[in-house]
Write a structure and sequence with these properties.
This is Polyamine ABC transporter ATP-binding protein. GO terms for molecular function: ATP binding; ATP hydrolysis activity. This protein is about 35% helix and about 25% strand. The protein has about 260 residues and is of the alpha/beta class. It has a single domain, classed as Rossmann fold, CATH 3.40.50.300. The radius of gyration is 18 Å and the shape is globular. The protein binds adenosine-5'-triphosphate.
């Protein structure tokens, strides 16, 4: 578990492309240990692609991504080792509908560890209790709410005690109260487990309530134009695009910042 402060993920001059289409160019940012780090920006600016770069699904054309100083794409050995140090929660929760919640959370443990079934069962119960779902082990995804399914996705992403947890649009499809509960869970897990959290979102309520650090990706210039605590950016940024985004187009005064 990561306990020390300091840089956890360092992105250096990262350029991401699909064929001849440049999504983001020369992006630089640092995610510190224990950050709830927000990847933000307007539609299509490349947030999901950046997360794919950070998680090994999209090798950058150029640049480096360092985890604890080790180049993620430097060798397949490094990549495999680093991949084991993080968990990913996809937008829908990505649960298998034919499996119980316990079976879903057990999957990574069965795939990547030699734990016996009794040990797996214990860890699964612990992870489900961490996300407030004790006693739901034998339910199927269709028998629980959307917010609960996302929590199961978090439990599964945490099965291997990751140092970093990635969230792709965690509040998508949730009502505001469920979205808020999920935000609270993210903060609670960060505080209790010291896990570094990286969150792709354009939900302003989430950005301000959980974000301690961020990068703002701009779709016009195709690069990062702001970096830091979103609450501070709201007050201090001089970039009209950043202010426009953070105030939903209202401007700083109207937004009360
Ligand atoms: N698999 C792909 N192949 C080709 N182009 C893609 C692919 N995935 C995304 N793109 C393009 O890359 C750009 C960035 O997409 P991406 O999904 O990363 O943006 P985003 O900021 O996450 O968007 P949104 O907020 O709408 O989810 C878009 O122009 C998109 O059309």
């Amino acid at each position: 578990m990561a306990a020390k402060k300091g840089p956890h993920i360092v992105v250096k001059n990262m350029t991401l492309v699909y064929g001849s289409n440049v999504v983001q160019r020369d992006v630089n940012f640092t995610v510190n240990r224990g950050d709830v780090f927000i990847i933000m920006g307007g539609s299509g600016c490349g947030k999901s692609t950046t997360m794919r770069g950070l998680t090994g699904l999209k090798p950058p054309l150029t640049g480096e991504i360092l985890y604890n100083g080790v180049n993620f794409y430097g060798s397949s050995d490094a990549q495999n080792r680093i991949r084991r140090s993080f968990g990913v929660m996809f937008q829908s929760g990505a649960l298998w509908s034919s499996m119980t919640l316990a079976e879903n959370v057990a999957l990574p443990l069965e795939q990547y560890t030699d734990l016996n079934p009794g040990q797996v069962r214990k860890i699964v119960s612990l992870k489900l209790s961490l996300v407030g779902l004790s006693g739901f082990e034998d339910y199927y995804p269709s028998q629980i709410s959307g917010g609960m399914r996302k929590r199961v996705g978090v439990a599964r992403a945490m099965a291997m005690d990751p140092e970093v947890l990635f969230f792709d649009e965690p509040s998508a499809g949730l009502d505001p109260v469920s979205a808020r509960l999920l935000d609270d869970l993210i903060l609670q897990l960060r505080d209790s487990l010291k896990t570094t959290m990286v969150v792709v979102t354009h939900d302003l309520a989430s950005i301000f309530s959980i974000g301690s650090n961020s990068v703002f990706l701009d779709s016009e210039t195709k690069t990062a134009i702001a970096h830091g605590d979103p609450k501070k950016l709201l007050v201090k940024s001089n970039d009209p695009k950043v202010i426009n985004f953070l105030t939903r187009g209202q401007g700083r005064k109207a937004a009360g910042a």
